[in-house]
Design goal:
Structural class: mainly beta
Number of helices: 1
Radius of gyration: 32 Å
């Protein structure tokens, strides 16, 4: 009798962070590859009837990817966050969380997402303990934390517990690239509440006269009413006003309460 032994040839990458095998007989540089040189690929000759390998060899290669030219930080919803428990600031439109995406830019216009690359580092050392990324150790207990989430989604940034306000700087660094970037994040709370009245119905600004005698009258939204007078010949009806609630935040900015929460006021004589 006779027997037949099947033989096979296989390639293996010894540095998967730099090279990957394609089609069983070729290798290619992976996206975001790490520079490497030396025995990077192994070739195996195997037999179905013989355990192990009949022969093996390695290929001396060098992977020298171009260095990143710049970093792009994309923050959705801005760079201002409401302190934890700052309900009034949230009502004024200040988000409780913002999302961060990180991209590396390479020569030739190549843009590589690095948000969840385990070599991307969020450095909280200058954040003042104000902000942290959801799913990582908070800024109050560490100065830097590697991003190790495999999902291709933005990172969510929130204010840390305690309700502290102020500004902090988040630095983004890389273990495999020399470029860095930073962004200033501001955490706010309500400092004071102000309610003012404007004429109602609303009217736009208008101009009377011409030349040197021109007079510009502001729109109703720029006029603050402190007294509502009786409308002449109306039989006791008074002017109307609409209340505007101004939220003065801890960073010195002013936001308006949404109009859906503002009430119109009509004064009548008793």
């Amino acid at each position: 009798g006779s027997s037949f032994n099947a033989h096979s040839f296989a390639l293996q990458s010894l540095v998967p962070e730099s090279l990957q095998v394609v089609g069983g007989d070729a290798v290619q540089v992976v996206v975001g590859a790490t520079a490497a040189s030396g025995p990077l690929v192994q070739a195996l000759w195997q037999s179905s009837s013989c355990p192990g390998s009949l022969a093996r060899g390695v290929a001396q290669l060098q992977v020298a990817p171009p260095a990143a030219e710049s970093v792009e930080l994309v923050l959705h919803a801005g760079t201002v966050l409401a302190a934890q428990g700052a309900r009034a600031a949230e009502l004024a439109g200040v988000p409780a969380a913002v999302t961060l995406e990180v991209y590396l830019h390479y020569p030739g216009g190549r843009r590589v997402r690095a948000t969840h690359d385990d070599r991307t580092v969020l450095d909280w050392s200058l954040a003042g303990g104000l902000v942290a990324a959801v799913g990582t150790t908070t800024a109050t207990t560490t100065t830097s934390s590697p991003v190790a989430d495999a999902e291709s989604q933005p990172r969510q940034l929130v204010a840390t517990p305690g309700g502290a306000t102020g500004q902090g700087v988040l630095w983004v660094r890389f273990e495999h690239e020399q470029v860095t970037a930073n962004v200033t994040l501001t955490v706010v709370d309500l400092a004071r509440l102000e309610i003012v009245a404007h004429p109602e119905p609303a009217y736009p600004s208008y101009t009377l006269g011409s030349g040197a005698d021109t007079t510009v009258f502001p729109a109703s939204s720029e006029v603050v009413v402190e007294q509502l007078a009786e409308i002449a010949g109306s039989g006791g009806q008074y002017e109307m006003a609409v209340l505007q609630t101004r939220l003065h935040l801890s960073d010195g900015t002013v936001r308006l309460l949404p109009s859906s929460l503002v009430q119109s006021v009509v004064l009548t004589e008793d």
